[in-house]
Amino acid sequence: MHIKKNDQVVILTGKDKGKTSTVIEVFPKKGKVKVKDVAIITKHVKAKRPGQKNGIFKFESLIDASNVKLIK
Description:
Blueprint: E1 8-11, E2 20-27, E3 32-35, E4 40-45, E5 55-60, E6 62-64, E7 68-70
Antiparallel strand pairs: 1-2, 1-7, 2-3, 3-6, 4-5
């Protein structure tokens, strides 16, 4: 895979097209990457145990490595 953690990348497709950001995690077997502040999803989480937080949380989701381009 041509992308590594902490690389600067530009998003080529999708709703975040044209954004520039940093790679958080790389999943080479899946061919996916997680990029900071890109592909944000919202999850409604219910507390399972006492003391655990519930609410609406935002996470970065995985995007295909072919949809990002390395900035040199």
